[in-house]
Amino acid sequence: MRGVNVTPAAAPSVISEAAQYPPDRVRLTGAGLAVGFGAPFLLGLAVLLASLAGWQWPTGFAITRIGAAILASGAIAVIVQHFEGWRFTTVGIRPFEISDLKIGLASGVGMLAITLAVAAMFSHAGSGADSWFSAIIIEIRPREIFLLSNASWWLAAAAVIALAFSDELVARGYAMTRLSALTGSLWIGAVGAVALDLAAHAALWGIEFTCCFLAAEAILAFVFLQRRRLWPCVAARLIFGLVALVPIGLGTASAVIAHVHKGSRIAPGDNSERAIAKLNQALRATSGAIPLPLNPKTAPEFARRAQVYWANGQRDLAIADMTTAISLDPKDRELLRMRAEMYGTGDEAAASAIADYDRILALDPRDTMALHQRAFEYRALNNPVAAMADMNAAIKIAPKDPANYRARADLYFVEGENVRAAVDIETAMRLDPNNIKTVQERATFYLRTGRFDNAIADATRIIALMPESTLGYRIRETAYDAKGDWKDALSDVSEIIRRQPGNASAYSNRAGLEVDTGHLRAARRDYEQVARLNPDSLDDLDTAAWAMSTSIHPEIRDGKTAVALATKACRLTGWNNSNYLVTLAAAYAEEGDFVQAVSCQAKAMEAPYGDHDPDHLALMRWQLALYKQHRHYREGDFGPRRPPKIELLVGLILFILILVGLLTVAAGVIKLARYRAPARA
Q: Is the pLDDT of residue 474 over 90?
């Protein structure tokens, strides 16, 4: 005989079965609720803390989530049958009927409709756009769906199925029935279960989705109270989860935007050093004996030389020449705009850029481009109110200009408001469906949000609208690459090379794809072609030199060629950019000249420009130690693993939380076992 003997005849309803609770069962119910809701809560807390610490959650999130669901379901099953001594009918698990599926389908559709309506009201109220509905669908999924993006589609689907059963068993089957029995009220039990479910999942779902999902939770609670059956709720939750899974596309969007522009720059026809020499000669010829500040004819020449300096990474020289050009022609808005774009990043740079945009708007208050650009500088200064004010002002000036909505969509995306970004992009599309920039913006948005098939469709549309351009092929190659469809990615980049045989970036991109697919000899040929083209693009020079210096594949490496490419990049940047000096050091090490490798690495650590964050400096010091030991550096070797202090602190906090949780559960189990012992006796 178990703790309580209940027969079907004595249990006409879920609540009447549970109504036999003695006061001691309060602790047992508390333990069940702690285990059921504690699993998603702790996992959500771990994800949240990882996000605050800047970590990327590992690709095993789907397995972890499935494991947590199985743990919670199994714990509830053990509590119900072993400790409570009741049947599974007390949590609504009864033989499956066709009516369960029908009611589940109807409920799932209702949940989708009401969640869409709630999300649409918030979005429509904030955007003022007419084509808002097409963007709402991407917001009806919890944050945890994004965390499944690194899993295969079948594993992600398995996670959704496991969650549908586990969450409903805990929230409806167990929490609602037990809380109703304890309080003596069906509705108080239902409200309490819904509140606990939302609170336990808030970190995993995100606050926005949690608020939108409240009405859907009410539907699930009503269905369970009416039917006393779990399967309709599971079916409804499963339908909702699978629909939420589909728009995401289950792809990894990291590094997509950097890659979409990779290969977009075609090497200029003139060598930058010759260009600067010609500009210097032009400046001397036009200035003559007249002091330069008094000769406005030289302003365009200074501006052109500034652009060449900027392209070569010599920012200070570029800003100095552009400042001279502005002093010669202070009312030229384009000169002010170019200087503002040259300031770079950081609070001081943003403030300087804003000052230039203020001057532009003083000259022409209706310059919407200046409003766009000043808005993003305000955003860099963490002033989103001023940024949005500038964007809205631009739209007020030109409400039918799609460029204004594209710019505001960019700002919304930076702020993490994907729904409103999608609304503005769709508005721009409605205003001018065949505008190449708008189609490109939407394709880029799809890439950012992992919707690679949609990005491919828009890229194909760009190809149809501009068949002579390679823009569509570049975007589509990026989407295919991110999707893992390397065959089609190789096809598109090869088409770019066919159309532009002098495009060094395309050869570099294709070489990277060929390495990924194991075509190492072909990759080597493409990197050699980059060297033969001898581009002025710093990215092309550095990418090829780095691969030929540090690749883990011997077939790719060529120290001599890498030294030549890296030397040119260093020369173009005045030997003062650490990124290119690091590449040159690796190239010398590959060639076996460790004396030069040590020298270049030491210069890189003292160079005024480049990446000097603490982690990168630590890596540079470790590379220097390698070269002093006459050892090569290989790509993917990130040096000694010393976790930052914040990671240790967060890890310690997580460990303590988990340990406390386990000890609490263990104490509860021991007490329950002691409680059970007299009953068995």
A: yes
